[in-house]
Amino acid sequence: MVNGAYSQCxxxxxxxLESGRQNVLLFVRNTGVFSIASIIVSxxxxxxxxxxxxxxxxxxxxxxxxxxxxxxxxxxRIAPTICFAVVGYFISTIFMNVYSSANDAIxxxxxxxxxxxxxxxxxxxxLEVIKxxx
Length: 134
Known about the structure:
It is a single chain. The protein is mainly α and 134 residues long. 84% of the residues lie in helices and 0% in strands. The protein contains 6 helices and no strands. Helix 1 packs across helix 2, helix 1 packs across helix 5 and helix 3 packs antiparallel against helix 5. It is elongated and about 70 Å long.
């Protein structure tokens, strides 16, 4: 909700308390849109974190396995690989939190735009064509 209040401050030019109130009202009016978007974004966040962490682990493991510097000096590759996984997880969490904040701001702008211009919520035209075919 705080990120939404900041977005409302930027969009409407009101103070933080008024922006927070407007954001709560906006969320209540568009609960379905925010809920569905939250579910989709959660999936992308988990996928992004997994991919970034896995890529960090694979690249780090490849480096310590194939580099001549580490071949004779490492007794086990498990500890460095665990360190790569921890660092990769923290980096992916930070990166995906930035993505999540940007997504929240864009979704907030969309909801304000739909409320301001009274854009009707209707099915996409492709769904109407499919419905007519049945």
